[in-house]
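ok trying again, last paste got cut off:
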Amino acid sequence: MGRTVVKLVEGMKFVAQGKSGHSVMMDSAPASGGSDSAAPPMEALLASLGGCTGMDVVSILRKMKTEPKSLKIEIEDERATEYPKVLTKLHLRYYVTGEVSEANLKKAIDLSLAKYCPVANSLAGIAEITSSYVIEP
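nice, full thing came through this time. structure:
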């Protein structure tokens, strides 16, 4: 079992520390009492999604002997208009460079989103998740 501790630093700035010992800072905009010194929690969540699926995709492609030269993921999100303004739709667009076949990339993305990425699978029951990809020279 994991354990994460989140502490108020000052204003609306919080520091979170998980069992790895690494810290993640979060803050809010001045209009909400913060100082805009770090990503707000929802951006941190979306960054976690990108990191999680990105690590999966690179790992799977490496096992397929088709390591990408680079990988970038853009995540577009839509949220409900009423509080708690949950995520309703997420679209992940993967940009890959290198000698990666379309079939391998599609398989790696599908495996990540459907099976391996716990962040994506946690959000899947809440938001509709779609994806697309671009293989760049």
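cool. The longest helix spans residues 41-63. The mean pLDDT is 97.
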